[in-house]
Amino acid sequence: MKIGLLYSRVRFEEKQIIEALNQRGIAHDLIDDREIVFPLTPPNGHAPEKQHGVHFVRPEQFQRYDVVLDRAMEFTRGLYALEILNSWGVKTVNRAAVVSLCGDKLLTTAALTQHGVPSPRTEIAFTPDAALEAIESMGYPVVLKPVIGSWGRLVAKVNDREAAEALLEHKSVLGHFLHEIFYIQEFISKPGRDIRLIVMGDEIISSIYRASAHWVTNTARGATAEPCPLDAALEKIALSAAHAVGGGFLAIDVIEDPARGYLVNEINPTPEFRGSETATGADIPNKLIDYLIETAKA
Amino acid sequence: MLAQTVAAKITAECPECAGTISLNGNTLKGEIVTCPDCGAELEVTGTNPIALDLAPQEEEDWGE
């Protein structure tokens, strides 16, 4: 068994994964994605193997791995690396198709709806005028989110028309082209928390509440983690959500709506799991390695 | 960025303020450390010898 680990930054999570691989004596290579050149066309024999510390890789080198785990913190970079590796027939966690769906909130919500998994009401508009109509029809407060983003960055709670007009103008004038895809979502009155589940394949590894007085409940924004008991409905919605996007090693974020119950907010394809591990004691690094081995053998 | 090994600890110099940073012997390339003197976020760009550089700034598509 030989595993490739594609990364750039070594966070707590990557360090834990590497230590677990070492402890289990599993052969692995750490590949810094900042130091490689991928060929998209057949090599013509002129590319060097290494030049000034940069590796000119060949498909055969990656095809020797039984599975490659991508831990890129940079969504776009990770996605493109996975697209290339999958095109070479290399098994990856996660698959490019899954990362592509999960990394874009519009595509995630569309996939969830297509599979009958409940989400907060969400609408899309391509101009500030159309977006304002959608917002007014939904009723205040609403939430605006960039379609690509994480850690609660650039999400906005819009309380009235004046704020809506200002935000829509700021996004279209100051933001790049993706900020003109207006992802408009109803505001859910959460009970001061949301739920984060780590899923690997068909198994739920951990389930935590992320509690915060602020409406944004990312632990990156200061929310605190505590164990969340798993009931049948929560388990069902988490596994259905994972299935809707193609499955893999995913972090599913669920909101408790007072009237409708569990709603899936979003799905993260490169989970950070320090909070989940600390709060529940789940051995996520070793479970992940088991999942990598299972994927390699499938 | 001068470095010296003392038992399992390694010390290095902050590239921003020249303060002393103490690192564990099992520090990996790619780890992020914070300078205790100036608070700069630094990346370990080499381990033999230890090399530190300012860490890349958060971009819009970073995250989970």
SSE order of chain A in H/E notation?
EHEEEEHEHEHHEHEEHEEEEHEEHH
CATH top level label of chain B: Mainly Beta
How do the helices and strands follow one another from N- to C-terminus of chain B?
EEEEEE
User: In total, how many domains does the architecture of chain B comprise?
Assistant: 1
Which radius of gyration of chain A do the C-alpha atoms yield? 20 Å
Number of helices of chain B: 0
For the largest beta-sheet of chain B, the strand count, sense and barrel status come to: 3 strands, antiparallel
Distance N to C terminus of chain A: 13 Å
Name the helicity range of chain A.
25-40%
**Physical arrangement of strands within the biggest beta sheet of chain A:** 14-13-12-15-16
CATH class of the largest domain in chain A: Alpha Beta
Distance between the termini of chain B: 32 Å
Strand order of the largest sheet of chain B: 1-2-3
The residue ranges of chain B in which pLDDT falls below 50 over 5 or more consecutive positions are: 1-6
The counted number of beta strands of chain A is 16
What report would you give on this structure?
The complex is a heterodimer of chains A (298) and B (64). In chain A, helix 3 (75-87) links the parallel strand 6 and strand 7 (92-93). Chain A is 36% helix and 27% strand. In chain A, the strands form four sheets. In chain A, strands 14-13-12-15-16 form a five-stranded antiparallel sheet, sandwiched between helices. A four-stranded parallel sheet of chain A has the order 2-1-6-7, sandwiched between helices. In chain A, helix 1 crosses helix 10, helix 3 runs antiparallel to helix 4 (96-102) and helix 6 packs antiparallel against helix 7. Chain A has three domains: 2-101, Rossmann fold, CATH 3.40.50.20; 122-186, 2-Layer Sandwich (Dna Ligase, domain 1); 189-283, 2-Layer Sandwich (D-amino Acid Aminotransferase, Chain A, domain 1), CATH 3.30.470. Chain A is built from ten helices and 16 strands. Chain A has 298 residues and is an alpha/beta fold. By secondary structure, chain B is mainly beta. Chain B has no helices and six strands. In chain B, strand 1 and strand 2 form a beta hairpin. Chain B is globular and about 35 Å long. Mean pLDDT of chain B is 87; it is low at 1-6. The interface between A and B is medium-sized, with 28 and 14 residues.
